[in-house]
């Protein structure tokens, strides 16, 4: 009975981790999807629009190492939940932006969505898995990252 309950908990963590990852990935790439409407509404140039997307994507890559260290130190669950809450706030602020400068700040904040989503949820899944299955569940996370990369190239 305990093994069944433990397996159920592991699967729930895996599903919630993947769902959170998908939501944060969507927030991370929102400027690529919403770029044209934002450009028309604020009257920004193509170069300014490119900067919005570049800040979100490239800054996300810069912060991966320091935030990965925090996930190792504080645990994947704490960092993952904090990142979900921060992502919701950053995404909300995008809806309130009324100037290009405010959008640049929001782009910086949104970049952290993509940064931690690939780190803290990975730690969360590996910590929840028993040692013999950690490789299998790590492979599932790797496959999700490969799908993310394929989707990014396709868009």
Q: Helices and strands in order, then pairings?
A:
Blueprint: H1 2-28, H2 30-42, H3 46-62, H4 64-74, H5 76-96, H6 100-117, H7 120-128, H8 131-154
Description:
The chain has 8 helices and no strands. The model has no long low-confidence stretch (mean pLDDT 76). The radius of gyration is 17 Å and the shape is elongated. The chain is mostly helical and 155 residues long.
Q: Can you describe this structure in just a few lines?
A:
This protein has 155 residues and is mainly alpha-helical. The protein has helices at 2-28, 30-42, 46-62, 64-74, 76-96, 100-117, 120-128, 131-154. The model has no long low-confidence stretch (mean pLDDT 76).
Coarse structural class: mainly alpha
Range of helix content:
over 70%
* Sequence stretches where pLDDT stays below 50 over 5 or more residues: none
Mean pLDDT: 76
Report the total helices: 8
Cα distance, first to last residue? 46 Å
Radius of gyration: 17 Å
Order of helices and strands: HHHHHHHH
